[in-house]
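debug: dumping io for the single-chain case to check the tokenizer round-trip. Nothing else runs in this session.
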Amino acid sequence: MKIHDLDCPGFECVRHGTDEDTGLNAFIAIHDTTLGPALGGLRIWPYADEEAGLRDVLRLAEGMTYKSAIAKTGLGGGKAVIVGDPAKVRRPETLQAMGRLIDSLEGRYITAEDVNCRIEDLREVRKTTRFVTGLSREEGGSGNPGPFTAHGCYLGIKATLEHRLGDPSCKGRHIAVQGAGTVATYLIDALLEDGARVTACDIAEDRVERLRARHPQVTFVPPDAIYDVECDVFAPCALGAVINDDTLPRLRCAIVAGSANNQLATVAHGAMLREKGILYAPDYIINAGGIINVGCELLPGGYDEEAARRHIEEIPLALKSTFELAAEKGIPSAEAALEIARGILEAARATQR
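debug: decoded output
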């Protein structure tokens, strides 16, 4: 395997690994370990080229730093991506090579599930490194983080509804969910149980059909039409950068609150949402349930589901503080969240000097 480190300003380490024998082409980015080792998922995606993969891993790793800081996990921010077609990459030999790349960082980065990376994939990664979270309960892990991410997102939507519309109940509210994957499905379960009306979409027809069979009452629209749905909440629960110059003018909602990472294409889009009167629940606060859950595997006494659930129930409080700071300073909620996260990091650095 060929390993070399890239010089990326603002990052502690960005490592690129390629392996001709297994076809591995991967990046690991460690943004900040002030609060602890960097924990973040492993994403497998058919990026157009290496540069696109590098850009994505940098954005995602930085977001993980702020997510872990505000969620008070005692962990830093990092991320890993494998550049390639998941159907070809998700092979034992390639995933084991990824484990060796992770192991080369000697615990500075700890991996977990992410897009196109499942528990069975982590099991292969685990064969060549111990720095893996999110394995099954039987294997000493915390299992699928999806239900925990979804639960935190559901609680966050209720908190955002209360702040923006004066009532936390989802009953009678129309929520447009972008995505029908694991997290989106668990979120829709909770929303429907709370009396919401749900419209959904996904680019994968098989996921749409699974969700349709599970919840016949859900209305489905083509993927691009989700932005035009008149609703109370638009919930991005798939890939990032979906709030951009093309989509933002089309939004017909009071709130943007979902589980996807890096929902804003740029920081400026947070300000544009505010100008349009749309309240944005910063993604790395509302979607922290999964990282909180897997982070609990690293507790001295081992994984404790009850401790994880108690911690996830603090997400609404973090959102409330963010919305209050944004209102007090007259700034977008995304900017307020960043200010809070950076303040936590700076305070920690001050005590370490």
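debug: round-trip ok. The radius of gyration is 19 Å.
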